[in-house]
Amino acid sequence: MDLFTARWKLSSGWSSPLPFWDGPGTLVLVFGSSDMLDDDTPLRAIAAAFPGSAMIGCSTSGEIVDAGVDDGSLAVAVARFQRTSLALEVEPVNQSSSAEVGRMIGKRLLDRGKDLAAVFVLSDGLDVNGSKLAKGLVVGSGGSAVITGGLAGDGSRFERTWVLVDGRPQVSHVTAVGLYGTAVEVGHGSDGGWTVLGPERVITRSEGNVLLELDGHPALELYKSYLGERAVGLPATALLFPLAVRASGTSDRELVRTILGVDETQQSMTFAGDMPQGSTAQLMRGTTERLVDAAQSAAVSARLPGDEPSLAIAVSCVGRRLYLGQRVEDELEAVASGLGPNCGLVGFYSYGELSPVAAGSCDLHNQTMTITVLRERAA
């Protein structure tokens, strides 16, 4: 596998010239600002350079290349496979269609080849139910492929996001690339580093990913009582205090959820994924050291043995970036250290992360560093 990573900035252009690697075995990953909905000139230039390749990308809350993060740039990775087949699928999405869209995309990818090894998926970050999308992908693809990816970001604005469709940025879509064959190797890891704070509350009323009541009380009212003066900054300040959600009767399947929006009239909160009624929810908090250590742990889990060239795709939550502030690159340096040498790193800060839960199937995470490592076995 040949590998190239670079960054594009309006002020300075490309950090390195794009390689002439166009072809059906080439995967092009592009992560950029939501403002490219207004001017997608640099995206069109990349699409023109790789007309025969599988190109996938989305808007971000920060673009990652190596151990650095920028805004208003493009983070690009080009991986040229020799013995791995690629296939792209895309479909419009909204909150109510998320499960069916995931199932359709997963099935289409599986129908293209029973040797489907991995799926990397990118979705609109606002008009989607991420947990339903993940479950649909698992069902549609037959459950054997490793599914990872993330939800597009828009800084801390929560206004508009895009994914690439035929090389152009589009809102309210899901796109996924399937990787086929026995030559491709896939590693994955995820870790949050957050710790629980305060009592567990039962989700007594919810509708999908809309949380209405905790312990019989209006959810937003109760959440605001924890935030205190920070409540005036909702929904952005909620990124600093996510919720741990645990299904009733389980102790080992805890997912982190963070808020996408609030409804003052209903006193409800909308999350990126489902908030199942009867589950328990508990406020969480973090420290810089715990979050950085967790990022390195995710990288170590994803790292593949040996030192052959590989590509690591980091999808980390915007909430982690806001929490870490000026120390955000400590997280990325920890990831790079955990991945080891000969591993190119590209990625983005997101509104939700898709990755397997421990040894289980793919699910939606929030406030989590997730790593996908791709490599091709030597012939």
Defining traits:
alpha+beta; 9-stranded antiparallel β-sheet; 6-stranded mixed β-sheet; 21% helix; 379 residues; 7 helices; globular; 2 domains
DSSP helix count? 7
Count of individual beta strands: 28
How would the global form be characterised? Answer: globular
In the predicted model, the low-confidence regions spanning at least 5 consecutive residues are: none
**Relative helix content:** 10-25%
Mean pLDDT: 93
Percent range for β-strand residues: 35-45%
- The value of Rg in angstroms is 19 Å
Short overview:
With 379 residues, the chain is α+β, with helices and mostly antiparallel strands.
Structure notes:
The protein has 379 residues and is α+β, with helices and mostly antiparallel strands. The protein has two domains: 2-191 and 289-376, no CATH class; 196-285, no CATH class. The protein is built from seven helices and 28 strands. The chain has helices at 41-49, 98-111, 130-141, 219-227, 288-302, 318-324, 328-339; strands at 2-9, 13-14, 26-32, 54-59, 63-65, 68-70, 74-80, 85-92, 116-123, 146-151, 163-165, 168-170, 173-180, 184-191, 195-196, 201-207, 210-214, 217-218, 243-246, 254-257, 259-263, 268-271, 280-285, 310-317, 343-350, 352-356, 362-365, 369-376. The strands form five sheets. Strands 15, 16, 17, 18, 19, 20, 21, 22 and 23 form a nine-stranded antiparallel β-sheet that branches. It has a six-stranded mixed β-sheet with strand order 6-5-25-24-28-14. Helix 2 (98-111) runs parallel beside helix 3. The chain is globular and about 60 Å long. It starts with a strand and ends with a strand. The model has no long low-confidence stretch (mean pLDDT 93).
